Amino acid sequence: MFEEFLIPLKISLKVTIVAGFFVIILGTIAGRILSMKSFKGKTLLETILMLPLVLPPTVVGFLLLVIFGRQSFIGKMIEWLVKQPIVFTWWAAVIASIIVAFPLMYQSAKTGFQSVDIEIEEAARVCGASEWNVFFLISIPLSLKAIISGSILSVARVLGEFGATLMFAGNIPGKTQTVPTAIYLAIDAGNMKMAWLWVLSMVLISFIMLLVVQLKQK
To answer: Where are the transmembrane segments (predicted)?
Structure first.
């Protein structure tokens, strides 16, 4: 029973760590670039980036199946490179989680960077600091609170991802079955004891993450 409880938890944590890493990096970079630059089509681009936040998870999952499926160009390229299709693997769960959690990280990072006083950054450039130095030594530290909050919220979103993951990665025990999909299967099978254990573990982890966000905002 303990092993049955532990396996989906391990898969969820593995997916959360990998997807969370990519979400934080990509969201921070996108937030920085789009907080600085104005260009034609920026509003359209930002709308596309934020779209997964409002789309039904099943729609996101369907689009991922179309884009990365075995009949698509991208899907065929991936299968040629890694010798297997990406659909119904734990990497599919990672991709689905990145897509749905990215808007949270992006919006938080962008808000944080927009709150940085431009004059401070300009003063650093006048003193000879490179763009990388300005970014890492001034912009990041001054927007750190927003970045940390966005990181925790996006990681929590990854941990709780269900719909898109179920469609794109499936619900394969020991392979792609995360805690949210395991809860669904346990309830469907009438295994309420196991469902409760997974539910309580998710509530505890999510509560701790949100508590950290609240404390960081004080």
So the answer is: 15-35, 47-68, 88-106, 134-159, 195-213
Cα–Cα nearest to 141, from 117, 107, 105, 166 = 117
Q: Is residue 2 predicted with pLDDT exceeding 90?
A: no
Amino acid 172: pLDDT = 87
Of 114, 108, 112, the closest CA to residue 38 belongs to 114
Token pair in block for residue 87: 């659909």
| Residue 22 vs residue 123, higher pLDDT | 22
In SS3 terms, 161-197 reads as CCHHHHHHCCCCCCCCCCHHHHHHHHHHCCCHHHHHH
Task: Give the list of residues 6+ apart from residue 204 with CB closer than 8 angstroms, or none.
Answer: none
Task: Give the pTM.
Answer: 0.89
